[in-house]
Amino acid sequence: MKRRRLDQSISLRQWIGTIERLAPEDWAFEWDCVGLQVGDPARSIHRVATALEATETTVQAAIQWKADLLFVHHPLIWEPLRSVTEESAAGRAIARCIENRLAVYVAHTNWDLGSHSMTKHMGQQLNLQQLRAVCPKPHLAGFKLAVFVPEPHLAGVRRAMSDAGAGVIGDYRECSFSIPGTGTFFGGQDASPALGRKGQLERVEEQRLEMHVPKGRIGSVIQAMVKAHPYEEAAYDLYPTEAFRDERHLLWTGRRARAVSAATLAKEVRRVLKCDQVRLIGDPRKKVRTLALCSGGGKSLLRAVASMPVDAFVTGDIDYHSAREAEGFGLTVIDAGHFDTEKSFPQLAAEAVRQVPSLRGLDLKALAVEETPLRGYS
């Protein structure tokens, strides 16, 4: 069988717009640095390499593979740079990327809050039942556009607004709400009403149509709505909406088929995640069945998890003082490390990109060159 040639090229700007549907940049926490960190948005890309982070090793591997884009989880640039010199590892990585025209795109906490997160994958690896996110997906800041439309034109106006970018909620399109009512208007001498006559008070049965609009699409959506609307002067209201996300969005919970001791669970986590080592906080004899999960660093979530009806918390990056805090809460914690709970990102990211119809022609490679900088010896 002849292998299909992967020869699709798209602009980096198109890539960003598409990936935004998987992990909107607005989902990221305020302190985070996500999005395009190196590269020209107008440049075409064909080969995309995925990695946990843009280290010198992964950058070199991507260059050797002749990648146009390195898609990573951990930001290469965390703070505003005053200089890019080769005296630091980050500076050397940035310099190599620029020299070889390798773009770097980051999806960090916005990826963690989505349905392709490493936390969800960790729960699947542990064969947990009733696996679910503690909170629904974050709510993006934006605007609510409400427009008043006569019933026969409702579908046309809704479709026009949708085509311009309104009504997107997660994986769903054309999301809207409408409710009937009676509109009135009195056309002046220079008016040309689409319904009724000028110079008299008219009553029209209308629908109040509401749709969410991202901030960057307001102008386009209003323009499309006005063009599709039958009235000479379309009446509409525009309301700002607040974003909602907090650290509990990072948590997933699940249930084991049967209870085991905390010590047994720790050994299972080490085996399944292929960790160099794990650390256990709490009584190793305690029976555990329901688990809370957070990949990467979960020490800031200890108080939230302690208030949940779970038996143990599997995460990473628990330091000494956080361990004492967990102990004080009576919380059983298994620390499997930051790297080992997130090292699945390259493969998960590649799989997620392959599932997007408009990106299937890209050449993708999940780099397998990364190792944890922390090694344990016994």
Tell me what you see in this structure.
With 378 residues, this protein is of the alpha/beta class. The protein folds into 3 domains: 10-112 and 344-366, NIF3 (NGG1p interacting factor 3)-like (Udp-n-acetylmuramoylalanyl-d-glutamate--2,6- Diaminopimelate Ligase, Chain: A, domain 1); 118-136 and 247-341, NIF3 (NGG1p interacting factor 3)-like (Udp-n-acetylmuramoylalanyl-d-glutamate--2,6- Diaminopimelate Ligase, Chain: A, domain 1); 142-241, Alpha-Beta Plaits, CATH 3.30.70.120. The chain is 28% helix and 26% strand. It is built from 12 helices and 17 strands. It has helices at 12-22, 56-64, 89-99, 109-112, 118-125, 154-163, 218-228, 262-273, 302-306, 320-329, 338-342, 345-354; strands spanning 10-11, 35-38, 44-45, 47-53, 69-74, 103-106, 129-133, 142-150, 177-186, 201-213, 236-241, 252-261, 279-281, 287-293, 312-315, 333-335, 363-366. It has a 6-stranded mixed beta sheet. Strand 4, helix 2 (56-64) and strand 5 form a beta-alpha-beta unit. It is globular. It starts with 9 loop residues before the first strand and ends in a 12-residue tail after the last strand.
Describe what is shown at a glance.
The chain has 12 helices and 17 strands.
Helix-strand layout with pairing:
Elements: E1 10-11, H1 12-22, E2 35-38, E3 44-45, E4 47-53, H2 56-64, E5 69-74, H3 89-99, E6 103-106, H4 109-112, H5 118-125, E7 129-133, E8 142-150, H6 154-163, E9 177-186, E10 201-213, H7 218-228, E11 236-241, E12 252-261, H8 262-273, E13 279-281, E14 287-293, H9 302-306, E15 312-315, H10 320-329, E16 333-335, H11 338-342, H12 345-354, E17 363-366
Parallel strand pairs: 4-5, 4-17, 5-6, 14-15, 15-16
Antiparallel strand pairs: 1-3, 2-6, 7-12, 8-10, 8-11, 9-10, 12-14, 13-16
Helix pairs in contact: 2-3, 6-7
